[in-house]
Write the structure tokens for this entry.
Amino acid sequence: MSLVLPMPAGGNNLLITENDLGRGFSIDGGNAKKSQVFIFEKEQIKSTFAKTDSNNLTLIRDNESLKSALDVGGELSLSYGLISGKAIGNYIDTKTSNNERMTFLYTRRIIDKIVELDCQAKPSNDISNVTSVDSLKSVYGLFYISKIEYGATLDLKITLESSNTDIMNQIKSELSGSISIGALSLLIESSSSEIKVTSSVLAGGCKPINKTDIQNFDDTMGVIYSFEVDPERLVPVRMEISPIPSRATQLFTLDPIDLSYYKNKLSSIGSFYWEFQQMITQLNDFSQLILPLLSDEDLSIYVQSLYSKVVQQVASLKKTQNSLIELVQNSMKTILDSEIPYTEATFSEIKANVQQLIGSTFTETYKGRWIGPSIGGIPTYKGTYKYKDGSKYEGLCLKGKRHGNGKLTYGNGNVYKLKTIDGIWENDKVSFPSTVTYEEGKVEEILDSKSAAILRKYLDEKRILDSVQVRNLSTTDEFIFKYIVKVDSIEDEEFQSFFKQAIKSIDDRKRYYFMLLGMTGTGKTTMVEFFLNILTGQVHDPQPQRAIELENKGVGQSKTKGVCRYEIEYYSCNTWMFGITLVDTPGFADSGGIDKDRQHIKSILSAVGKLERIDSVSYVVNGALTRKTLEPLRVLCNVFSILPNEAFQCVSTIITFCDNTNQAGGVRNVLNEMLDGIKDKPAIFIDNPWSQHLKNKFKEIYGKDDSSTSSLLGVDNTEELQKKMEAKTLVVQNFFLNRITSKTSFKPEGMKILNDLKDEILEKLRGLAITVSSLCTITRLLNDLTDTNIQSLITQSESITMDKWLKDRGFALKGDKPQCKIMGKEPWPGNVYSTVCYAPECLKEVCHKGCSINFTPIKGDNIFKGCAAFRGNTNCQECPSQCSYEQHIHVKYKLEWIENDKVLELYYSIKNGALDAIKKTEEYDIQAKELKKTYSKQLSEFSKLKTKFKDLSVLGDMHIILYSTKDTYKQYMDIAQQANDTDRASNIKKIIDELESFIKALKTTEEDESKFEEQFDQVKTRSKEKSSIHIWKMLM
């Protein structure tokens, strides 16, 4: 299949003549004309004189439209680029079409003569001697010139320029379909006073054209009308090249598929080469345009980096071209086997960078659309900035900011009530001299730094008020604060970068739920406030953000009364983009105690239950944590025992009051001792600068009067706080992006399920504790009814008194009831300890209140001989029976008496003989069986629940939960005693007793059940056997 190669107007770069018919031709660059394939003989040349005339008008929007206008592309792209690189510079410059400029290319081709080689022409003798395809390709190419069309060519570039964009848009609209030079002429004629027309001419094969630099459209039309073929000056207009046929050489028997693939690859390389050549031409033209500005004192700062970047880009593109040429000059096999070093994606990126560099296309930024030169997406030099809020800036930019002379036109209904600011700008801020025009028509001149500063302050305040709006949507059931963030109004590059990365990462979720949990006093709420300033783009001018109506005032109390949701909604171009919800929770372990913590858990579960999911849980911990202590352990239990296992992948740690890597690492290690694996989770450590910022109304302020601070020595770092906030912003943003990109989440319903499960386990433990206690009592009574005991007791029953019986068992008869002394729950007033007698028959409740000798909780210690109650004796002088020191002990709580009727029942049974004792034994047996059956059922139910809880919860170890809770209550009881709060201490003592019974019951559940049964069965069997022997003896 033959290929047609159009020749550029204005020159015959290949020096094609009629004598070139039959010559070899290469389409892969380098020297296109090769050796003679067919012998040139006059009789083999066919000439015809069929005249054709064609013209076309194309609006040049980009390189593709130019290629279409010149009819260049496909497999001949590379050849055309190599042989016509200079020629295309006549068509391309930096003045591509935009809203104020349009470039058209008018082409006309008249064919006057066609010369064609006869298909029966004889091959040259030398071609038959070629021994390889690569040699053939090198000497002859793979094609030969089979036809040449001669005539005249005209290429007319027409540029229209006007500041009236309405007229330009109308012309574009009118010419949206097929474009003709006549239609364009009529449109220009109707608006000629507002349109500047320039034209340049390239022509060949025609009669001389007098005008080549045209300044109006009439002259342009005059050139078109005067264009006429000159038979004496004909030039090649097109030529046709055909594949070398197999009759020319037997060697040329390529696989059609390989040949097709080879040609397609050359086509792609040629297309790339063409595009790179055009880029180089554009860049060179642009560099020449800005070169004079380098010596301009005022403008050089705008173009220094730009010019340097253009030079670098040209060098890079030339290097790219060379690599393409090197590839096509390889053997055919190498070309077939090699990959083109540039993909369409890579090329598109390079092309976009070049176009943005010279300003031939727009650059999208977080502010809007910049039409002008840019370096790496950052606007520079002069151009037009169309902002997302509807305003427009025309003028100079430096490093992406308005800088130098320029005019900012505000959109209708703007919050500033301004129409325009025209004058000098400095780093996006208005400077002087400038002219400000207000919407109502007022004009203000800014002539000095003071008036410029006042205007800047006014603009900043209005911008901040407009960029973030806060709404309180709280109800009686929940606290919700919504932040409406107008992203386009925030002039903070770090925030804009964060916004772009976040919106890419969130994908289809569109909302991210972030919950913070931790102890009171860790700075959690203040950290949330810092986060809010960062996430709403206000870190450069931070504002108080916390919900003051939720603040507790008491020392040691959680500052947050209840769960609070901060919903941040991001809007761009008046469209909601996505949202981030921060859930701030009350701090655990405040002065309200465990009961308060339970209330907090209840409120947390109620609040998060309304969320569709939770994406991140951050545990907030104080950087002062250096060892495993009770309160952090208990809080950790509270928090992580109600988190389902799948939530652990969403866990992170925020370490407050910490600016040291080693310190933060130590905290993570301590936490890992309490909860294995947490140190491997993401963490951020930060000494929150907002906590001491001047604008933070809730910071601790000491010494409000001048006199109290006059004697203070030190370095005030107030001015550094704002700098620290800005420096730490990136760290916080990256932390949030890390959690967002993790794409982990869990359903909050699991938290309530686990909390309910934990409550159910405690209820089961309570029942187990009662059953175990009853079993222990029955077991002790059965031990009393062994044969030896019964025989001995019956023998003694005639002489033993009730008082002696009760005394031997630790009881005394008090009010006709058997009672024994135990340590009660009410502490001695004044938080003292006292000496008491534990002799069962002694009815004295206290022997020496507030004893001063060393506290001794060991019964019968020699130290009691020194107690004031003994007055130097070995027997207590306060006890009615002067009991021995061996019966005395120190206690912190008052003694109480408890009744036990079963002890008396057993006494009467023994007194009435063996039969009653055995009867009582059988009753105890029945009770023991029922209790054991109950215990087995309870144990089975409890074990299932415990296993389930352990499997489902992040921290499901009931041992740790119960022990940490019990030890915490002990601390609370000590505090209550020190404060002489006897009622609170008494209530706490009851809770501790219950927790100890839970722990005891828990221990029994972990013992081998068969061992427990064996122990119980031995007691029961021994009792039955020996009682039976005794009955037999009595009957005998």
Remarks:
- The radius of gyration is 49 Å.
- Residues 74-90, 549-559, 700-709, 1018-1036 have pLDDT under 50 and may be disordered.
- Residues 914-952 form the longest helix (39 residues).
- Residues 342 and 348 are 10 Å apart (CA to CA).
